[in-house]
Fold these 3 entries.
Entry 1:
Amino acid sequence: MNINPNFKPQTVVNSNHTKILEVSENSDDVDIPQTAAVRWWWRGYSWAAYQLPNGLKVMSDRQMSLMVEQSKANVRNFVDAYNLETITVKTPNGMIIQAKTLPTAAAYLQLLLESGNLQHHRLSLNQYEWKDLIRTLSDNNLGKRKLLIPNPRFFEPNYRVVTAKPIEIEIVNNIVVEVLVLPSGEYRIGYSEGLNCIKVNPNWLLQDSHKKAKVFTRLKLSPLVVQCKVNTPSGTKRIHTLSCEDWLSIWEYFAKKRNRQAIAMLKACAEESIACRVGRRQ
């Protein structure tokens, strides 16, 4: 597509939350942040993304091109044309890329919306829905976000807080899950990890819902909340977790709803337990 010289992106990346890193010939001299593979959710839709240690989400050229349904070349041309910010990051497989922030994706969608180039997008959203998606993408300010808590209709309000060591294990078909090892030797998995791996919105465990609380009761989940403190290069992050037994119950619940990823996770765990997989990594 042709770039409109009169278009001015309305989304601005706050330099307090992101930083452009210049890569020298000797990349060892640069502190390039390591990212984790995640999914960014809006309503019932999700897109692949990368998450920095501080929680900020970014996208590669390919990930952003899939969201806006434009070529990777068009994505790069758009970013260059408007001098939008990029962040040098290291992907989970060790590649160093110039990642794009979510507000940059919002600015591109805004341009496509104003130019009438979203009419044939596979999402088939109306004007209001596109504007809501763009507004949500633009809200990349971590400091202003309300902290979500586990569903208060089911989970106990008092947390048990423990330190944990993260270990990544591959379960099946390149699905990698971060397992948290507690000092007691117990293994736990965070809300986002356990649901992202089966492509379910992590808010499923956080929404204030009587209906969900009844589901959790049927699944016999533990109502006791364990929050794990994990040290990262950028500081300590806190993660709400469930036991591996609880996760097997949740994956079985979604497997019965014909969630292919959940079915694959259950089969893989039946062949070799999570505990055995973690044991081989320690």
Note: The radius of gyration is 20 Å.
Entry 2:
Amino acid sequence: MQSTALLPAMFHPSTPTPRRPVWPRKLVAWLLAVPMLLATARAHHGFDSSTSVRLLENQTVVIVRMSPALLSVLLGPEAPADWTDAAFQDLRPRLIERSKTFFTLRSADAPLAATSAKASLELQGEIAFILKYPAVSFPATVTADFCKDFGPAFQGTLTVRGRPLRAIDREGPVLATLDLSPTRHTLEVPAPGNSPAE
């Protein structure tokens, strides 16, 4: 019978088998959740908004996304303590009516009235509005009235796009952009072909 003393250490009966580290389930779950939490935090950061205006052939479409904090300030006492789906559904009719006052669009110096409005609560927690107006004539201006009364904590962007150049394009070229602030919230839109962004 061969002595175990002559066997390599890895085969020696008295050598314990190395064990893989066991990660606590809670720690693993937390590590997996971190990216989602960070993404959610960015979506809810401060008084944020982003607006895209699309100048189409037969209509103008305004898509604006707002953080719950920003919309709560706009609503005042009407705002819910927590933006749950149930709270949003309860407020949806009032949100739709209120959203029609968020912007002033002027086409050839004449104001345009919103023809329709929709509101939705997105998975990231932001509230999105889709507003439709008649097609614009130039010169045109877009004013974000909702940000006039905010302080320096407000952050927002306004981008105006022209008609898609090709049938396969989902969006048209950028005609004008503006970083919104309480003092800078009106954007003059040049006619396509005269845009410095092209």
Note: DSSP finds three helices and ten strands in the chain.
Entry 3:
Amino acid sequence: MEQLTQLIEKLKPVELRLLRQLYQVKKNGEQNRKLELLNLIVGKKVTTDLEAAKKIYKKAPDSKFSHLKKRLRKDILAILLLPEASQQYRALNAQNYLACEKLITQGRILVHRQLLQQADKLLLKALQIAQDYEFPHLEIQARIHLRRNKTWLEGPPAFDKYNDGIAACFQLYQEIIKAEEYHSRFWHPYFLAENNETELIKNAQKYVQKLKELHEKSSSKVVAAYYYDATIAYYNQFIYQPTKAIPFIHQYIAIAQNGKKVDETALPKAYVQLLFAYIAIGNYQEAITLKETALQYSPPHTVNHYKMMIVYFHAHLYLAQYQEAAQCLATNFQNKMGKVVTPITVESHFYQAYLHFYQKQYPQAQEALLKCTEMTKNKADGAIAYKLLQIYIAFEQQEYYHLSFELENFRKLIEREKQGVARAKIIHKIAAALLRHNGDFQKIRETEQTALQKLTTAKGELVWDFSRYEVLRFEEWIAQK
């Protein structure tokens, strides 16, 4: 029942409507029972096989009920192909991919039924879509059916016309498949956390180079997109050299804007990376200048829109534009994705705490932190970020009596991690010294000058990344006191 429920919950309104219409047209016992089971699940009136079977058959689940579920599932999967592609996907590239697949399948069926001229129109349309959007594997299928169908309609010369492009399609498809492989191998160790930081960087560098070599030999826009995406991530996320990422981001945006061959969902991702790079190098005003342009590619209530608003929050925060920063968070609290992706709401409360902190509203900052305790249970960056803000607040309020406890917890969080915490270790060392000197910032600027200089220079492992655990740069906080 769980899998069937999950499938039904993901149905779009148009699909649910078509399914109900199907059962209402075919009025018989089985159709009525399938409709009854569908409505029970949609209405959340049943959650288990036992509850559903007793409602429909007045007895415990048996083979009859099992077959009913299978038939309902089969109908649901069939109905997924009925709506227009534009109703299934927002992205134009994805819409046309589905439309092309449908046209080829419909064309094959019509050929089988000897409706050759009607099939010809569908297959030619599929061929055009495949060429426009760079779907070489679908172009191969369209060409194979067209060379046979056109030969019947126009004679042998038509065979060569549609056969000749197949070899080039195979070559292009091989290039795209290889690029996708390299792109996946670039990302998998990062997402699966399989290697230490040094190995991750080596792996990333290796596949960026392979993608570069492939890109230089290929005219494919899809291959270019894989190369730019990996290269941007390498400079922005792996070795944190955002100035080197910026030229590649502009190239990525150019191919995404000027052609059909790159999924337009690449555009909001590229703009997020561009904004990230500007914030990282301290060019906050340039990031804000791009606001209207960037947001037009990220519809409200999407994850990318949320990410953009977080980047803009940082830009406004660092420029002391607190009202604008608050508006960014207000927009994110209204983002419907927050109901689906819980960390969105949790993280927004965390940034709200920082907004209060910047405005010296320390009690309100503590109150906002209470709404995002979930961060302490998640990945290391979240727990360290949460604890670091607690430490900032405690020092500002001179609550030295429990700072030793907070610092000890901070130390344990850092030691638990094997990589990516070099800055955090120095921060802990300086903060512990600050506590020993009862919050004497002047003394710390003198005694911990070397450590503070390391944070300021920020080379290698000590580079400051605003998007991780250190929203407020620690050495700047010390310098301002």
Note: Residues 85-164 form one domain.
